[in-house]
Design brief:
CATH architecture: 3-Layer(aba) Sandwich
Structural class: alpha/beta
Strand content: 25-35%
Number of strands: 9
Strand order of the largest sheet: 5-4-3-6-7-9-8
Helix content: 25-40%
CATH superfamily: Vaccinia Virus protein VP39
Radius of gyration: 16 Å
Shape: globular
Order of helices and strands: EEHEHEHEHEHEHEE
CATH topology: Rossmann fold
Oligomer: single chain
Number of domains: 1
Distance between the termini: 42 Å
């Protein structure tokens, strides 16, 4: 992924901070760390959410996440979670199993001085199953496409998210209302970008 030259600094906005360059980069789209670059490690299967998909997602969410509690499962580069923190989320937990990626996420957290962000090493579905019931406002799910984790991850996310809260899912195929209804989730928004289906799901108001 080629990085873009940073735009001129907006008046009153903190300067973008750049972490060490890696095999590629993604950038934070908006908020406090707008235009900050995040490294993408050269690892098989690591597939960060493209800039334009993240931009659409946060348009769907309304841009300002002030006060939200978010969980970025299968965090990878941390692009989704850091984007949420940049837009005012009160607490963001990044969950990642790979030790090298965990170390990189911690380094990014330090360099951005992202005090709202916590990095946790662990398996995503297991971590969500242990998450306090109905306590998250937003859960990001972007599991490896070659792993059979979508159904159990969605089930665990539906348990963790608060009534009226959101689950963002990236998958290689579309999930429909018939599949989602037993989980207490409804399809709020959907887009297809290349091989990726991006879903914004909403938890029923009743548990």
């Amino acid at each position: 992924m080629a990085s873009k030259a940073p735009a001129a600094k907006a008046a009153g906005r903190p300067a973008a901070k750049t972490v060490a360059r890696s095999a590629g980069e993604v950038r934070i789209i908006g908020g406090q760390w707008k235009r900050s670059k995040l490294p993408v490690a050269d690892q098989p299967g690591l597939r960060p959410t493209p800039d334009r998909v993240r931009e659409t997602l946060f348009n769907w969410l309304g841009q300002d996440l002030t006060g939200w509690s978010c969980v970025d499962v299968f965090a990878g580069t941390g692009a989704l979670g850091f984007e949420a923190a940049s837009r005012g989320a009160r607490a963001v937990t990044l969950i990642e199993q790979d030790s090298a990626l965990v170390a990189q996420l911690k380094k990014i957290r330090e360099q951005l001085q992202a005090s709202a962000v916590q990095v946790q090493r662990g398996e995503g579905v297991a971590a969500l199953k242990a998450w306090p019931l109905a306590s998250a406002d937003l859960v990001f799910l972007d599991p490896p496409f070659d792993a059979n984790l979508f159904a159990p991850a969605l089930q665990a996310a539906a348990r963790a998210v608060a009534p009226g809260g959101y689950v963002y899912l990236e998958a290689p195929s579309a999930w429909n209302e018939e599949q989602l209804a037993p989980l207490g989730l409804t399809l709020h928004r959907h887009l297809k970008a290349g091989a990726v289906h991006a879903h914004l799901l909403q938890r029923s108001q009743l548990l």
